[in-house]
Amino acid sequence: MKNMKENRSSQYDLEGRTFEFAKNVRAIAKQLPKTLSNLEDIRQVVRSSGSIGANYIEANESLSKKDFLMKVKICRKEAKESRYWLRLIDPGDDAALKKHLGELVQEVTELMNIFGAILRKSE
């Protein structure tokens, strides 16, 4: 899993940062205990984590300010959803997985804040 601090140094490369976040979610998903609840939560977080970057790419290709703002709102919404699912996932007794989940929650919280700041400055 890529070091989250490396991602923060390129904080304003949001396409790259959201891509790395989605890749890191997928990497940890492979390591998590396959309980019934985790399987559903993992499916959900894999979807929402990928949607953050996909919508940010669409925002950058938008044809109007209104469209841009709507896509960024979707990015923030998907980031909030990703944080929710990450917090629900049970890493079992694995301290390293628990730490990695905490790092992912921290990263997605930062992404939420960045998208919120973009919205405040753009509206």
Please tag this protein with its features.
123 residues, mainly alpha, de novo design (two linked rop proteins)
Count of beta strands: 0
Major β-sheet annotation: none
Shape: elongated
Residues in helices, as a percent range: over 70%
CATH class: Mainly Alpha
Kindly give the count of domains.
1
**What is the N-to-C succession of helices and strands?**
HHHHH
**CATH level-two architecture:** Up-down Bundle
End-to-end separation in angstroms reads 36 Å
Give average pLDDT, whole number: 92
Indicate the proportion of strand residues.
under 5%
| Discrete helix count | 5
Low-confidence runs: 5-11
Radius of gyration: 15 Å
What does this structure look like?
- This protein is mainly α.
- It is built from 5 helices and no strands.
- The chain has a single domain (13-122), classed as 23S rRNA-intervening sequence (de novo design (two linked rop proteins), Up-down Bundle).
- The protein has helices spanning 4-9, 14-29, 36-60, 65-88, 95-122.
- α2 (14-29) packs antiparallel against α5 (95-122).
- The longest helix is centred in the C-terminal third of the chain and has 28 residues, at 95-122.
Short description:
The chain has 123 residues and is mostly helical.
